């Protein structure tokens, strides 16, 4: 087991005009499950492939434990990677697929068999060891790919969207299994996904990337409670945080017909940047609904989920999502006065996107 360090690691693809991964700084603890998340093209796979040694590093360094692996070939890094397409050998049995790396490494047959059987037991694959991959379901193939990584007992697991070929229900159960397995094995894991729900449910910590730049790295809880900028605020959470540009007034901001207090520090930071507005963020569950005042929205769609419901409303082209109790669902077409609950409003700079509130 080992820690992993990206030390200003940069990847500029030949012919590119800006780096696909730009001075990535990330320290992953020994045994930690870190999830890299972000929209398509933000540099997740490139980061993982740099750590695997499948992509050149053009600046900075990468360390596993205290070994500088920046220029080591993949086979000398003691890592195992699980790819999106699993890359199983179709002509080999499950057992041979799982034991292949050990065979290449020159381990004896009995040892290979023992390690494969151990992993198969963990993954519930024992009864499939003699089958070929084509005779397995998608979920079983996914587990074989995991098994192939596990038998090697590497220092680090790398996984690039390993669940994207599974249907929605299987994805949910498999993500729990992977997280539990990782906890049992205690092997440092870097896991890539574009799905923020997967990131938030699986990771000890989550790192959000955008355009090759690290936006924030934090525990799921902190990421949700205190997003560092407008991008993270809008990306993490489902339904997404409401982001509304509002005018600054004395001691606060004007939210519809109400004045919502904002800290002096946040307001002066906005004023220093020459801004007349800030962008406030309010999660759907953090609105108070009143009889008057606040922002008056028209209810367009109501989503009833039983225990609670989501109201999709709008005001002058600004969409607003509000969570309501399951028994207090308003009528479609009605009006609702909403105001951010005290202490639950996030404040961001409209011009830079940076977080201004505590
Ligand atoms: N071999 C390559 N040569 C040139 N550019 C590349 C190469 N591979 C990736 N890129 C570019 O680098 C950027 C990052 O790509 P990367 O594959 O890391 O994104 P990603 O975050 O994994 O996206 P996705 O969620 O779609 O898999 C993209 O703009 C992509 O077009
Ligand atoms: Mg990718």
TrEMBL record:
One of the GO BP terms on file: carbohydrate transport
Q: Does this entry carry the keyword Transferase?
A: no
UniProt xrefs under Pfam families: ABC_tran, OB_MalK
Sorted keywords for this record are: ATP-binding, Nucleotide-binding, Transport
Q: Which Gene3D superfamilies match?
A: 2.40.50.100, Nucleic acid-binding proteins, P-loop containing nucleotide triphosphate hydrolases
SMART domains, A to Z: AAA (SM00382)
Q: Where is the ABC transporter domain?
A: 4-236
Could you tell me which CDD domains the record lists for this protein? Answer: ABC_MalK_N
Give the UniProt entry's GO cellular component terms.
Answer: ATP-binding cassette (ABC) transporter complex, substrate-binding subunit-containing
Q: Does the keyword Nucleotide-binding apply?
A: yes
NCBIfam families per the UniProt record, alphabetical: PRK11650.1
- Protein name per its UniProtKB record: Sugar ABC transporter ATP-binding protein
- Which organism is the protein's source? Streptomyces katrae
């Amino acid at each position: 087991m080992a820690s992993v360090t990206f030390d200003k690691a940069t990847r500029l693809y030949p012919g590119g005009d800006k780096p696909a991964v730009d001075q990535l700084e990330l320290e992953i603890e020994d045994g930690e499950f870190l999830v890299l998340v972000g929209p398509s093209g933000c540099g997740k796979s490139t980061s993982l492939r740099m750590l695997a040694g499948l992509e050149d590093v053009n600046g900075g360094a990468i360390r596993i434990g205290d070994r500088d692996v920046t220029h080591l070939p993949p086979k000398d890094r003691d890592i195992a990677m699980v790819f999106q397409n699993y890359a199983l050998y179709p002509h080999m049995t499950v057992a041979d697929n799982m034991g292949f790396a050990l065979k290449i490494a020159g381990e004896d047959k009995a040892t290979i068999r023992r390690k494969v059987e151990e992993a198969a037991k963990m993954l519930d694959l024992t009864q499939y060891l003699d089958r070929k991959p084509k005779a397995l379901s998608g979920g079983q193939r996914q587990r074989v790919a995991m098994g192939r990584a596990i038998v090697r007992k590497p220092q680090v697991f790398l996984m690039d969207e390993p669940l994207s070929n599974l249907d929605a229900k299987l994805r949910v159960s498999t993500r729990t299994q992977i997280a539990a397995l990782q906890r049992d094995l205690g092997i440092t894991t870097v896991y890539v996904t574009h799905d923020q729900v997967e990131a938030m449910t699986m990771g000890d910590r989550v790192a959000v990337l955008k355009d090759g730049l690290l936006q924030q790295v934090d525990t799921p809880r902190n990421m949700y409670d205190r997003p560092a900028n407008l991008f993270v605020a809008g990306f993490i959470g489902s339904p997404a945080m409401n982001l509304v540009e509002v005018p600054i007034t004395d001691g606060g901001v004007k939210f519809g017909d109400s004045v919502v207090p904002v800290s002096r520090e946040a307001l002066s930071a906005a004023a220093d940047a020459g801004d007349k507005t800030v962008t406030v963020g309010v999660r759907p569950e953090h609105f108070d609904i009143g009889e008057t005042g606040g922002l008056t929205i028209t209810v367009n769609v109501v989503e009833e989920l039983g225990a609670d419901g989501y109201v999709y409303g709008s005001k002058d082209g600004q969409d607003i999502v509000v969570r309501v109790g399951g028994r207090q669902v308003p009528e479609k077409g009605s009006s609702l006065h909403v105001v951010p609950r005290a202490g639950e409003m996030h404040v961001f700079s409209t011009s830079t996107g940076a977080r201004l509130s505590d």
